[in-house]
Amino acid sequence: MALDDNWFSEIHEGAGSAFSLRIRAKLHEEQSPFQKIEVYDTTDWGHLMVIDGCTMVSGRDNFIYHEMMAHPALFTHPSPGQVAIIGGGDCGTLREVLRHPEVAHVVQVDIDERVTRVSEQYFPELCEANDDPRAELLFIDGIRWIEDVTPGSLDVIIVDSTDPVGPGEVLFTPAFYGACHRALAEGGLVVQQSESPLLHMPLLERMYRSLAEAGFDDARSLFFPLPIYPSGWWSATIGTRGGDLTGFRSEAAATSGLQTRYYNAGIHRAALAQPEFFRLAVQDWMRPG
Ligand code: SAM
Hints:
Blueprint: E1 7-12, E2 17-31, E3 36-42, E4 47-51, E5 54-58, H1 62-74, E6 82-87, H2 92-97, E7 105-109, H3 113-122, E8 135-138, H4 142-147, E9 154-160, H5 174-183, E10 184-193, H6 201-213, E11 218-225, E12 233-240, H7 250-255, H8 265-271, H9 276-286
Parallel strand pairs: 6-7, 6-9, 7-8, 9-10
Antiparallel strand pairs: 1-2, 2-3, 3-4, 4-5, 10-12, 11-12
Helix pairs in contact: 6-9
This protein binds S-adenosylmethionine (SAM).
């Protein structure tokens, strides 16, 4: 059945698939200096933000993504005081990070101020913590910022980027991971949205190999559903500078009282289970030589 103009569709050419949401209206469209930003009003998924034709955030399922970008890493690090978010301009990940009382300072570095301004207008609930005195919002290229960070000064870096095309491409390079490694204190973590394990294994392989090349001692992916992203099955990958990725602060996660809708200690444990094809692939990627 062909879809009419009442639908937004993202076509995943390489995967021979597409994802559609029924819309009532297009609320916003602009070409920023970096990318095309659109917002739709959908009939069943709330507002939908689209960047360069790719779905970014929907009112209905963004809580899964933002909670999984923030809480697993913050409950893995023993004491996450200094946090940076690279990208994340919609501010949803920032809001989740700020739920952690042990976070003393979080800087969000997005290349495109317009994403944040559009989010403030159409996703005010994601921006409700932006005035927290622990939060600092900067609008510059993430790689330029991270290269100038005082070495060893960060505990957790969260890379909440667009796909590895356009301005987001640089955030998937060995040079970027090298700069993250320098910026992290001993025991520090980087976590990055790492696309779909079903569709993007070459990208995941590149990430694992680049993290190792940049000096990270171990890496581990977490898996979660994300209906509006290609295949509906998404991942985040954590790399550590000398820390331990075999467990997390499960007692703290279970008793934190954080007001989450998706994340809890059981979800965290389950997200760390490695599908068989993925476990075997990672073994191969990590084999010396
Ligand atoms: N959840 C989304 C996803 O996985 O599709 C990501 C959402 S967030 C809106 C992505 C942000 O990354 C955008 O606001 C974009 O401006 C930002 N971004 C892209 N390249 C960047 C760069 N080089 N430095 C900093 N931010 C960047």
